[in-house]
Amino acid sequence: MAGGPFKAYRDPGASVRRQIAAEPGEGRLLAMPFVIGIASFVGGIPEALRAAASLAEEDPVAAVLSARLFGAVFVLPLVLYALAGLVHLGLRVFGARPKIRETRIALFWSLLLSTPLMLLAGLGSAVLPEIGQTALSLIVFSAFLAIFSAAIAEIAGFQRAWRVFSVLICGVCLCIAIFVTLS
């Protein structure tokens, strides 16, 4: 068990296949987004403290931390379930036919594997200058996309994870372009 996460980093596709074969119950699947949310909350505490310093509230730290905790515990799991649904629909467009449960496991497991990196990025945001924080965040996001690409390639039966990674990068760039254009 101690070597499990290291095996998962070496071969994320096989790791997600093992998770699917274990047939986790809905309770365990639901617990994954909560763990991800709590970890993202903890990793975001340094940024939350900086944001609280600029608020004109009676207790700005409590206000920011409680809002972020609410978002991490209640909103993030809903967003992740919706995102898994969108990914599932996207896979169907490309001809893949995985089960929605497999898509959820792939997304949640990829995020869980990325959680230590998210925590590292949160720690880095407390000590690094802004450019270092941005670079570290991009590295963490790229690592998540690489892990998620391997997981998606595994459940969808695609031969090459790098092609999935390329499509994900193009999709992210398209979303950023649309967001920048609309704002």
Describe the structure.
The protein is mainly alpha-helical and 183 residues long. The chain has one domain (8-182). The chain contains 8 helices and no strands. It has helices at residues 4-10, 12-21, 26-43, 45-53, 60-93, 100-127, 130-156, 161-182. Helix 3 packs across helix 5 (60-93). The longest helix has 34 residues, at 60-93. The mean pLDDT is 88.
Briefly, what is this?
85% of the residues lie in helices and 0% in strands.
Question: Could you give the topology of this structure?
Answer:
Elements lengths: L3 H7 L1 H10 L4 H18 L1 H9 L6 H34 L6 H28 L2 H27 L4 H22 L1
End-to-end gap: 47 Å
Number of domains: 1
Give the amount of beta strand, in percent. Answer: under 5%
**Main sheet makeup:** none
